Amino acid sequence: MNVIETSALGRRYGGQWALRNCTLNVPEGHLVALVGPNGAGKTTLLNIAVGLTSPTDGQITVLGGIPAGSPTALDRIAFVAQDMPLYRNLSVSDMLHVARNLNHGFDVAYAHGRLGNLGIGLRHKVGKLSGGQRAQLALTLALARHPQLLVLDEPTASLDPVARHDFMATVVTAMTDDGVSVILSSHGLAELERVADYLVLLTDGAVRVDGPVDDLLRQHLRLTGPVGAPVDPRWHVVESRDARAVRVLLARVDDPAMPVPDEWEARAVGVEELALAYLRESPAPTRPFMVEAAR
Ligand code: ATP
């Protein structure tokens, strides 16, 4: 089952496309990192997926063909927005009360248990909690709905490294314990490298790269050789940099097992390195690179 499926999805604000011709199939059971430069369309895509915005163009379904924004979809998807909209003047207990009234099937016992483990007292005012505690509260409210899909839009942007680490640990635990699929937008590539097993990279409102992280890493190499050495036509160069007489490439290779010519040295790449190479590359080509193996 695909948790998000889009076809030529587009969203225009006035004369400007925030998302354009975005075609994407995200399978269930992954922690998906949605990355891209500022203004790439990440929030727009997530807002459409959770029903907060409607598309101008194209189609989108969630959780195996359910129309995005329909009551069934809303029931099964939990969303934590960038600004974590919590009522700062309410106590944590009142916040849980509001969440229970607004959400059918809200698991109060689960929420109490989680907040107890985190040491977040029910009588605390939400506005007096630390940024990390507020993020954990927002995450608890989302998880207590026992969603099939958890959508997180830059949830750790304002958190310190420890709070960020703890937040991500909670997300990973929810994935393993409850089987929830997660899609998470973030600029924290190093953090995503640790936890994400599926990557979607957007540039200029369109999908540039997507697929399981393991497949993407297998299909890309960092190649170092002398400037002027012939570049194998089966290498699709994503990034090329010269330092004196040395050329450093990051390339997608048709056949990861093929031998590399003697003048070149090859090594594996990491997620951060791979994403940076695509993010530096501009403009986006017309046809996105997709990993077919897992489809
Ligand atoms: P960031 O990483 O900075 O959060 P993003 O990838 O999430 O960026 P979006 O917020 O989706 O990008 O914005 C994509 C484009 O659409 C931007 O040019 C933005 O200015 C524009 N945009 C987004 N929302 C609106 C809106 N409500 N009205 C007008 N333009 C908008």
Give me the CATH architecture of the largest domain, please: 3-Layer(aba) Sandwich
Give the spatial strand order of the biggest sheet: 6-7-8-3-9-10-15
Our estimate of the beta-strand percent is: 25-35%
In CATH terms, the superfamily of the largest domain is P-loop containing nucleotide triphosphate hydrolases
Q: How confident is the prediction overall: mean pLDDT?
A: 89
Structure annotation, total helices:
9
- In terms of per-residue confidence, which ranges show pLDDT below 50 for 5 or more consecutive residues? 283-295
Share of residues in helices = 25-40%
Oligomerization category of the chains in this entry: single chain
Shape: elongated
Give every kind of bound small molecule, once each.
adenosine-5'-triphosphate
Helix-strand category: alpha/beta
Provide the number of structural domains.
2
Distance between the termini: 10 Å
The CATH topology name of the largest domain reads Rossmann fold
CATH class category name of the largest domain: Alpha Beta
Main sheet overview: 7 strands, mixed
- Order of helical and strand elements: EEEHEEHEHHHEHEHEEHEEEEHE
Radius of gyration: 21 Å
The total count of strands amounts to 15
